[in-house]
Design goal:
Pfam families: GIIM, RVT_1. GO terms for molecular function: RNA-directed DNA polymerase activity. It comes from Yaniella flava. This is Group II intron reverse transcriptase/maturase. The chain is an alpha+beta fold and about 450 residues long. Helices cover about 45% and strands about 15% of the residues. The protein has 16 helices and 13 strands. Strand 6 and strand 7 form a beta hairpin. Helix 8 runs antiparallel to helix 9, helix 13 packs antiparallel against helix 14 and helix 13 packs parallel to helix 15. The two termini are about 20 Å apart.
Length: about 450
């Protein structure tokens, strides 16, 4: 609590993070935005008043504003987000600055989601590495409504194990119990869960889900039954499995060099570990598969397959998952509909943002042919849209996209050139393991 009320820079840093990461225009249940505070109230006065409330203990978390967005994949299901007020976001960001270094010291290396210096590609690289070492049976697990179901009592118990300042604990509990202002304007109490959309929620979710990491990674710790290569080899000689958990937020996989039956037993153990936290596995989305069949994780399709052109050389490959390809193609279609009245320049700018970010994420996969395919789809969508808009014939398209020598050139508008996915280089992402730098 010392940093929150006595260090004047903490709330200022928190304010900058809120404005940068959350945007200045999103409003919570009180209707205030960061832009309104900066223009009408004054940032300094706002932060000083907030610090005084924290000092005197009069600060109270406000209900989060409910907003429902479609889940990816075209399932038609909705994901419920909770948007805190600006004041709550700033305090949550400040509390995160204080708590994150403490819990990072305890978090295990098998967890990658919402942690500094770590990314989804590290989780994929670890799966690829262990898959190449014989861990071929996979429990692909999904926790049902994780953020909505975390038990507050169990979560606060884990927080209290590391945090003794009662004022900080009171703030954390206040954010958990703040309630929800529904889209219809009704106030709903929150008895479980931590709202998606809150700055502090990812840290709290990792605290809750670290029970999984601790249970399944314990054998890998010093002195554990899987802590050395020799011990793992001896277990295999005896017909016993070794396993490895890789978790990214509430998505995780358990790999084993044993059999499918071993994973069935581990799945039951997972139920027992998650139960005290109020969590259960989704029966519909949890599956046991062999890597030769392949599975999807974090947008990638991971599969053990034979190398093309060889007789018996097999590797674990990462491809772009079909749902991720379908998602980006849908975004391209939405921006290039024949009825679109947006200018070509604005459309190219928006397409560039989408495809550049998408390719940066997937450039470590076996994706060259996929990038070319998506580029081909995007090019034709723009050409057809422009033909409808201008009532062009094919000769007009050639006149637009070729120079005086008849050579084709990229689509561009007012100096903005369409990003070329086909030219994105494919780079292998190296497994970093213990080389991931400590963030604090």
């Amino acid at each position: 609590m010392f940093n929150l009320v006595h260090d004047p820079t903490t709330l200022h840093v928190a304010w900058q993070r809120v404005v940068t990461n959350q945007g200045a225009r999103s409003a919570g249940s009180d209707g205030l935005t960061a832009t309104m505070i900066a223009e009408d109230i004054g940032v300094s006065w706002f932060l000083n008043d907030l610090r005084e409330q924290l000092k005197t203990g009069t600060f109270r978390a406000q209900p989060v504003r409910e907003r429902k967005i479609p889940k990816p994949g075209g399932s038609g299901k909705l994901r419920r987000l909770g948007i805190p007020t600006i004041a709550d976001r700033v305090v949550q960001a400040a509390v995160k600055i204080v708590l994150e270094p403490i819990f990072e010291a305890d978090f295990l290396p098998v967890s990658y989601g919402f942690r500094p210096k770590r990314r989804a590609h590290d989780a994929i690289a670890e799966i690829q590495m262990f898959g190449s070492q014989g861990y071929r049976w996979v429990l692909d697990a999904d926790i049902e409504a994780c953020f909505d179901r975390i038990d507050h009592t169990a979560l606060m118990g884990r927080v209290r194990d590391r945090i003794k300042d009662k004022r900080v604990l009171r703030l954390v509990k206040g954010f958990l119990k703040a309630g929800i202002l529904s889209e219809l304007g009704d106030h709903q109490e929150t008895y479980t869960g931590t709202p998606q959309g809150g700055i502090l929620s990812p840290v709290l979710a990792n605290v809750a889900l670290s029970v999984l990491d601790e249970y399944f990674h314990a054998p890998w710790q010093t002195g554990g039954k899987m802590s050395t290569n020799m011990r793992r080899t001896r277990r295999r000689w005896k017909g016993l499995p070794n396993w490895r958990i890789i978790r990214y937020a509430d998505d995780f996989v358990v790999l084993t060099n044993g059999s499918k039956d071993h994973l069935v037993e581990l799945r039951e153990e997972i139920h027992e570990v998650l139960s005290p936290m109020g969590l259960v596995l989704s029966e519909a989305k949890t599956q046991i598969v062999h890597m030769s069949t392949g599975f999807e994780f974090l947008g990638f399709h991971i599969q053990w397959a034979k190398k093309q052109g060889t007789q018996d050389t097999w590797h674990v490959y990462t491809f772009i998952a079909p749902r991720a390809i379908a998602s980006v193609k849908q975004k391209i279609r939405d921006l290039t509909r024949a009825t679109s009245q947006q200018s070509l320049k604005d459309t190219v700018i928006r397409l560039n943002r989408i495809t550049r970010g998408w390719s940066n994420y997937f450039q470590h996969a076996v994706a060259k042919h996929t990038f070319r395919h998506v580029q081909h789809v995007m090019w034709w969508r723009i050409v057809r849209w422009q033909r409808v808009q201008h009532r062009w014939k094919w000769q007009d398209v050639r006149r637009w996209l070729t120079d005086h020598t008849g050579r084709w050139h990229p689509i561009s508008a007012d100096g903005i050139t369409l990003y070329n996915l086909a030219e994105v280089p494919i780079r292998r992402y190296r497994y970093r393991g213990n080389k991931i730098p400590a963030p604090f």
